């Protein structure tokens, strides 16, 4: 029986494109630029989406399902055009229609700026989750900020990263809808006064504040083939009224200017930090801004068709994407108490039953803490509520532990209070103010329970749960790798598109020679496609027959790009000293953005580029190894890179990477993992089998043991391992830069001779030898073509667990308890 697919009127689409070119630009197709054609086609697609969007919202209004509000400072959506037509099941129809108009769909897709409202893992995960929520038919709102400038664009100049503003809205965004009718006011500053209401109750209100207007822009999130369209609602700030000079006295004029300034700054730019907190006042303003607007909207939406707000949690759940949206706890309390006259206890009951928190990192520098005075000044009423939550929670700790043998109650308070040391600890507020706390991979959740959040886990174990991350196969296989997607469908049918566990059926082909050849032939074509991109963008010619060894992710010390490039330097030395030794050619591919103020990370980028310069231009190497740094790593070029990877470098210091999701995207595309037992790598190896991955290095237990005992002394390794000594010396002997001192800071990070407890905090030298050995195993394995093909194929076949559909199902079953919306 033929499966039902969504209807799509190709001729209507064509007419619509022509009409849009005419009405938007007063041009014919022949006169229009590629950008104009893209806009015209995108508006035509939006027309098709709007019908589904309206149907979904109407069905939801009738069926009244519970809604998840996924609250996140970041949504790293990537380009919408291709993804939208894929999920509408209209990719082929659109491609054909465009061809008939003499337009190449790929050229058109390349006209779209990459919406980059996120830094990395956490933001991209939010985007995958929205895709899965729609595909599974659950009602969801993504709640975020419409930054005028997203993640900066990276230029590499003379080997250095240069940040260029990302003006992604320059040409407008055809997919968005401005919803002025849903605008909300958000208040900052001022002071809190007390009054008695008509019923004799003591009430609080904020006065003397500044106010901005939050205006939502809605973006459609289309489910695959089911007609469900959810909404990503991102908020922009506007001044509350365009002030007129003569209607203000002097004081008001001043205030009006301040309000105007506040509004113009609020949504200007995304903070470009990953796994690190900048602690800036404007960032806290951004947090409260989008949270207040989102919470007010959620409550109002509920009140449109319900009368008992005490049951709000039966119809709404707030998932807090890390601690950045945690003011939602206090904001919901405020709305319930101040706007709907709830008692504290009733408001607390609703709030804790509504909120849930996901932790995405254990890096100390990412733990969000705000100075009390800043928090209080900016959010006086919210602070008052947090203070009371804290008072009651500390009381609860004391009641629970006072008198218990062997328990230091003060130590418990110190480790768990929300307000301590003049700081507001956002993770503690998120844990106390909700009913679910989850980590993002098994190992990560274990570390939270046993170490980072041990006291909380002991006090409230029922709140803790694991939700191993996942990724959407629609974007990262169906769109990113059409050749492999088609091959998979030919072998096992297309069920995998909405049920990735069906990939398991590919295991039957693991030893099939023909299947292996086809699989590797597709990989080769994808490597050719990437080689072309690299030639065009880097001017470097790489050989698609070489092993493509790929490390693409944010630049962070714990992710250890430095370990990778040191290993490359060692390989370079090896080839130079043993020119006749058999060595299978390798292309090392890097892509990474560094936070603008993160000097060590930026210097690592410079080092990679300098090493690339030396190696790629050394005639002695004869192309045996090449090093490429891909500029401006982002979702759109990631899709090309994942499809072309042979080796997936996942080499973080064990215990530091919460999960990782690039590891899953590469596995899906048939790359073999070279990694440590960290984050979700552990589960990847579990699924694919140890014999189909290359694992090395310290375990998380060993790392944590060293850390407990003050680290180790890397000097011992430097002095005893001549390979290590040679590589490190080359950082400071002028091999890679005329200025011998340029890379000294990296050298010092590894061998801090002044303070050895600060040396090599990420265990790079400790893992060096075992990493070299794993690299060697890779090269050997690759030369056995059959063995490699089987391994690569088995990686694709074993990735079923890592779909974000699975993750979302777990959230729904165990935490959110949503009902599906049914479309006729
Ligand atoms: C960013 C800012 C603050 C805190 C965490 C992050 C972040 O992006 N963390 C990453 O989240 C991903 C999704 O859960 C994980 O896969 C990464 O391991 C983690 O580093």
Automatic annotation (TrEMBL):
Keywords for the protein's UniProt record, in alphabetical order: Carbohydrate metabolism, Glycosyltransferase, Pyridoxal phosphate, Transferase
Catalysed reaction, written as an equation: [(1->4)-alpha-D-glucosyl](n) + phosphate = [(1->4)-alpha-D-glucosyl](n-1) + alpha-D-glucose 1-phosphate
Top-level taxon: Bacteria
Cofactor: pyridoxal 5'-phosphate
Molecular function per GO: glycogen phosphorylase activity; pyridoxal phosphate binding
GO annotation, cellular component aspect: cytoplasm
Enzyme Commission identifier(s): 2.4.1.1
Gene Ontology biological-process annotations: glycogen catabolic process
Presence of keyword Cytoplasm: no
InterPro entries cross-referenced by the UniProt entry: Glycg_phsphrylas, Glyco_trans_35, Pyridoxal_P_attach_site
Matches recorded under Pfam families: Phosphorylase
Keyword Transferase: yes
Entry-linked CDD domains: GT35_Glycogen_Phosphorylase (cd04300)
UniProt modified residues of type N6-(pyridoxal phosphate)lysine: 665
Recorded family membership: Belongs to the glycogen phosphorylase family.
Protein task: Phosphorylase is an important allosteric enzyme in carbohydrate metabolism. Enzymes from different sources differ in their regulatory mechanisms and in their natural substrates. However, all known phosphorylases share catalytic and structural properties. Allosteric enzyme that catalyzes the rate-limiting step in glycogen catabolism, the phosphorolytic cleavage of glycogen to produce glucose-1-phosphate, and plays a central role in maintaining cellular and organismal glucose homeostasis.
Protein name: Alpha-1,4 glucan phosphorylase
Organism of derivation: Butyrivibrio hungatei
């Amino acid at each position: 029986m033929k499966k039902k697919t969504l209807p799509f009127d190709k001729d209507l689409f064509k007419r619509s494109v022509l009409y849009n070119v005419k009405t938007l630009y007063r041009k014919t197709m022949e006169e229009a630029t590629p950008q104009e054609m893209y806009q015209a086609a995108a508006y035509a697609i939006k027309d098709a989406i709007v019908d589904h969007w309206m149907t979904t919202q109407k069905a939801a209004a009738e069926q009244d399902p519970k809604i998840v509000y996924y609250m996140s400072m970041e949504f790293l959506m990537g380009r919408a055009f291709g993804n939208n037509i894929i999920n509408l099941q209209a990719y082929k129809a659109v491609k054909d229609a465009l061809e008939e108009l003499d337009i190449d769909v790929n050229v058109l897709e390349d006209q779209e700026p990459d919406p980059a409202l996120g830094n990395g893992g956490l933001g991209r995960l939010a985007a995958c989750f929205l895709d899965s929520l729609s595909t599974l038919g659950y009602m969801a709102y993504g709640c975020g900020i419409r930054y005028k400038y997203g993640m900066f664009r990276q230029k590499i100049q003379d080997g250095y990263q240069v940040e260029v503003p990302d003006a992604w809205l320059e040409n407008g965004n055809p997919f968005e809808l401005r919803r002025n009718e849903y605008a909300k006011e958000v208040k900052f500053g001022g002071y809190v006064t007390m009054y008695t209401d008509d019923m004799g109750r003591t009430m609080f209100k904020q006065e003397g504040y500044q106010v901005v207007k939050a205006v939502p822009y809605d973006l459609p999130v289309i489910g695959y083939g089911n007609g469900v369209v959810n909404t990503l609602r991102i908020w922009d700030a506007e001044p509350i009224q365009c002030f007129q000079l003569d209607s203000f006295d002097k004081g008001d004029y001043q205030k009006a200017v301040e309000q105007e300034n506040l509004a113009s700054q609020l949504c200007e730019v995304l903070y470009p930090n990953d796994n690190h907190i900048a602690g800036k006042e404007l960032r806290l303003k951004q947090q409260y801004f989008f949270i207040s607007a989102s919470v007010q909207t959620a409550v109002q939406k509920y009140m449109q068709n319900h009368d008992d707000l005490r049951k709000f949690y039966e119809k709404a759940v707030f998932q807090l994407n890390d601690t950045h949206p945690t003011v939602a706890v206090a904001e919901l309390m405020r709305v319930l108490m101040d706007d709907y006259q709830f008692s504290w206890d009733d408001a607390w009951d609703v709030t804790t039953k509504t909120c849930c928190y996901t932790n995405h990192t254990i890096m100390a520098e990412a733990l969000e803490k705000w100075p009390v005075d800043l928090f209080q000044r900016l959010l006086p009423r919210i602070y008052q509520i947090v203070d009371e939550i804290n008072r009651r929670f500390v009381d609860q700790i004391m009641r629970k532990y006072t008198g218990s043998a062997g328990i230091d109650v003060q130590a418990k308070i110190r480790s768990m209070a929300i307000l301590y040391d003049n700081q507001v600890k956002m993770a503690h507020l998120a844990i106390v103010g909700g009913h679910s706390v989850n980590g993002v991979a098994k190992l990560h959740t274990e570390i939270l329970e046993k170490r980072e959040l041990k006291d909380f886990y002991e006090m409230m174990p029922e709140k803790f749960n694991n939700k191993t991350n996942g990724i959407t196969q629609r974007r990262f296989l169906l769109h990113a790798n059409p050749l492999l997607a088609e091959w998979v469908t030919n072998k096992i049918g297309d069920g995998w598109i909405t049920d990735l566990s069906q990939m398991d059926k590919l295991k039957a082909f693991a030893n099939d020679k023909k299947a292996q050849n086809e699989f590797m032939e597709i990989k080769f074509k994808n490597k050719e496609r990437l080689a072309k991109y690299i030639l065009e963008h880097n001017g470097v010619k790489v050989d698609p027959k070489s092993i493509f060894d790929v490390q693409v992710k944010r630049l962070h010390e714990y992710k250890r790009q430095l370990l990778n490039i040191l290993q490359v330097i060692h390989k370079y030395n090896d080839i130079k000293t043993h020119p006749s030794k058999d060595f299978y050619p390798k292309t090392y591919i890097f892509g990474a953005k560094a936070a603008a103020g993160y000097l060590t990370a930026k210097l690592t980028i410079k080092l990679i580029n300098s090493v690339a310069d030396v190696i790629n231009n050394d005639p002695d190497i004869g192309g045996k190894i090449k090093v490429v740094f891909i500029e401006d790593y982002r979702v759109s070029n990631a899709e090309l890179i994942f499809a072309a990877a042979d080796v997936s470098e996942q080499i973080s210091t064990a215990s530091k990477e919460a999960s990782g999701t690039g590891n899953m995207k590469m596995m899906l595309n048939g790359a073999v993992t070279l990694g440590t037992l960290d984050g979700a790598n552990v589960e990847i190896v579990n699924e694919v089998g140890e014999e189909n991955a290359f694992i090395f290095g310290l375990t998380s237990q060993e790392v944590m043991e060293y850390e407990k005992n003050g680290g180790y002394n890397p000097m011992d390794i430097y002095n005893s391992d001549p390979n290590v000594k040679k590589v490190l010396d080359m950082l400071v002997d002028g091999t890679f830069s005329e200025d011998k001192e340029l890379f000294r800071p990296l050298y010092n990070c590894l061998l801090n001779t002044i303070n050895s407890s600060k040396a090599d905090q990420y265990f790079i030298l400790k893992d060096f030898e075992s990493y070299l050995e794993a690299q060697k195993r890779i090269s050997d394995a690759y030369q056995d073509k059959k063995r490699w093909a089987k391994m690569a194929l088995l990686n694709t076949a074993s990735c079923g667990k890592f779909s974000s559909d699975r993750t979302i199902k777990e959230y729904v079953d165990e935490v959110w308890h949503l009902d599906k919306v049914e479309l006729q």
